[in-house]
Amino acid sequence: MLLKREISEEIASSVLDNLELQGLLNDLEFAGLWAESRVRQKKLSKRVIASELRVKGVAQDIIEETINGIDDEDEYQMAFALAERKYRSCSHLDPDVIYRRISGLMARKGFGHNITSRIMRELLAS
């Protein structure tokens, strides 16, 4: 960003180093807070969070460390709760419509087909 504004690389590097030393620039902390926020508020999958962090310019090793901090079972439980809430609102509809609506929701949140089909089996079994 600084280079795009035609600030010399030497000055940009110096400013970034100074901010990092003061604890004001910490990609790992940012990524962790971002991921926590997106899981809590938006119920997004690890895949979507990783993509968002990539777009924000976070290094791949930091993204991997952050994503590995999200427990697979916690992610599944979050996805199940989301699908269950949707299921309750459309359970009176045709089973094909229910599946389409829930799988669409899961896809928009970044959950793959494996999780979606597992959740659908569990919902329809109960």
Shape: elongated
Strand content: under 5%
Total of domains: 2
Work out the helicity level. Answer: over 70%
Mean pLDDT: 91
**Helix and strand run:** HHHHHHH
Stretches where pLDDT falls below 50 for ≥5 residues? none
Largest sheet: none
Q: End-to-end distance, in Å? A: 52 Å
Count of helices?
A: 7
Work out the number of β strands: 0
State Rg: 20 Å
- From the helix content, strand content and strand pairing, which structural class follows? mainly alpha
Question: Would you mind describing this structure in some detail?
Answer:
The protein is mainly alpha-helical and 126 residues long. The protein is built from 7 helices and no strands. The longest helix has 19 residues, at 72-90. It is elongated and about 65 Å long.
Describe the structure concisely.
This protein starts with 8 loop residues before the first helix and ends with a helix.
